[in-house]
Amino acid sequence: MILEQLLKDQVGLAVKNLSGTEVPEAGIRIEQTNPDFPGDYTVVVFPLAKLMKQSPDTCATAIGNYLKEHMADLDDFHVVKGFLNLSLKDSVWIGCLRDQWESEHPGKGTEGQGVKVMVEYSSPNTNKPLHLGHVRNILLGWSVAEILKYTGYDVVKANLINDRGIHICKSMLAWQKYGHGETPESAGIKGDHLAGKYYVLFDVHLKEEIKALVAAGMGEEEAAKNAPMMLEAQEMLRRWEAGDETILTLWRTMNGWVYEGFNSTYARLGVDFDKYYYESDTYTLGKDLIHEGLEQGVFFRKEDGSVWIDLSDEGLDQKLVLRSDGTSVYITQDIGTAQLKADEFGISRSIYVVGNEQDYHFKVLKCIMQKLGKPYASGIYHLSYGMVDLPSGKMKSREGTVVDADDLIADMVQAARAKTEELGKTEGLNPGELDQLYEILGLAALKFFILKVDPKKRMLFNPEESIDFQGDTGPFVQYTYARIRSMERNINGETKIPEQLQALSPLEKNVIRQLYSFRAAVADAGASMDPSVIAQWCISTARAFNRMYNELPILKEQDPEARMLRLCIIQATAKSLHQGMMLLGIRCPEKM
To answer: Looking at residue 267, what is its pLDDT?
Structure first.
């Protein structure tokens, strides 16, 4: 049984037997004890004292005495300012260590068994390369999907690619006008970067045209609408929608370049997808559901023929779902795509990893699907995340000031190389092994720095800070793992949990408690869809291990039982750290 649940049950029994009062489980709070005080777990006594009509200290003492009499696993208790701190016997923690040491998949859960969930992430436009903002989206989505799989869910990883629209036509038109047949091969440029080059070029020429029109006396807003480049792009979109084969051929060619570029970046990031959707296939979906909703009275039609939904009772407002000419708006497509996902995969939960600027949109989508009576509607969840800033400020795609994902990865790998060579951590590795190590370290620095932040928070990405081998970073955890693996290679003979032990030292117990908490961290990360829970666990565990390593002998310990125990601790630590980092998409090198 989980220790926290065992303690809750026992505290509930104590209150009932001491006062005759039933206490709901939700009314019992069990927390890990503050490391500044003695104890393993703390019972928050104040709400229980009210039920028992006693002072907090009197109540805590009574419950502590009851537990000590009735719990064989309780070693001692301390009352500290109305809190009840409980210390478990070392045998309990040895049992926890044995479970972690023996487990093939430490922390693995079963919460999601029988539930099918789709996680949709990345969702790029095909007019530019992936950038730092996409990187946060991709890493969050992939990690959440892996964490959910590890807690038993049947997960489908999906990528809905925005491959149509005026922004795509801008890149196409600029290439058509100024590209002179340039290809990724002839230019020596990745296809997604080549498309992005022409997206920026479109904006450059558009601004020149607007400036000329304004100089000729036209208002700036009118000039923006009537600039020849904009009118040509709109005409190209019209021809695309009409099925003009010349335009479609160019569209397929340039999108093909972009997909090759995207796939290269995905591969380097180590992420994958089970299903690709394309907006060019899905943008006509949803109209049937709109008509179905009109018949049900979910939607209403205005005098101009447009179709709306009134969400005022939900704290939102009226939302257009179909234009007066019968064409779709963006929410129409999402309504249809939500149904397509359910029909195709039978999912009961659908997670959209999208920036927080779309919070309103996904509230509307969920409300609409609920009003349409779709069984999967309650499972729609917007994993909303904050934007990523750089020390230099915000990024703008049209002006070419974004930080491309490929450039960022290359810079991080180079930074890993420089830092590793500066610290002299290259001994015993050949050039090929060093190149692989720099790649692993650079990607770990990038991924961990992004994933250790609560997704809801806006974040500042600091490349220099992310590569610090002593900070709360991926390379610090990797170095701890490599240190353990080095020790493991020097172990002679088999290891096993000792049968007879003297008392655990506080440093040993602290590491074991951290290892035991991995299961709760994985469950919490899955429930909250927040990989930062795993990242923070990795940091805390690495620090707990390093304190033990720095203060207690391990391989040179003279007492055979103590030595064997510490060897088991380091093996369990390596296994759990490796698994935690894997859930973040981070590899751990065997040597550093």
So the answer is: 97
Lowest-confidence range among 121-135, 158-172, 315-329, 380-394?
380-394
Separation between Cα atoms, residue 56 and residue 52, nearest integer Å? 9
d(CA 68, CA 524): 30
Asked if 264 contacts 129 with a C-beta cutoff of 8 angstroms, the reply is no
CATH code of the domain covering residue 49: 3.30.1360.70
Q: Which of 437, 440, 456, 458 is nearest to 448 (CA)?
A: 440
pLDDT score recorded for residue 329: 93
Please tell me the number of Cα atoms within 13 Å of 158 on its side-chain side: 25
Instruction: Please tell me the distance from the alpha carbon of residue 62 to that of residue 81, in angstroms, as a whole number.
Output: 14
Mean per-residue pLDDT for 383-412?
Answer: 76
Please give the tally of structural domains in the chain. Answer: 3
Query: Among residues 53, 88, 123, which one ends one of the domains?
Result: 88
Assess whether pLDDT exceeds 90 at residue 393.
no
Pick from 51, 37, 35, 2: nearest CA to 14: 51
Alpha helix locations (H) across 216-329? 220-226, 228-241, 245-269, 279-282, 287-296
| Distance between CA atoms of residues 412 and 263, nearest Å | 19
Q: Hey, what are 88's tokens?
A: 């478990």
Which residue range is the domain that position 51 belongs to?
A: 3-88
Q: Point out the domain boundary residue: 223, 256, 276.
A: 276
At 222, list the tokens.
């009118």
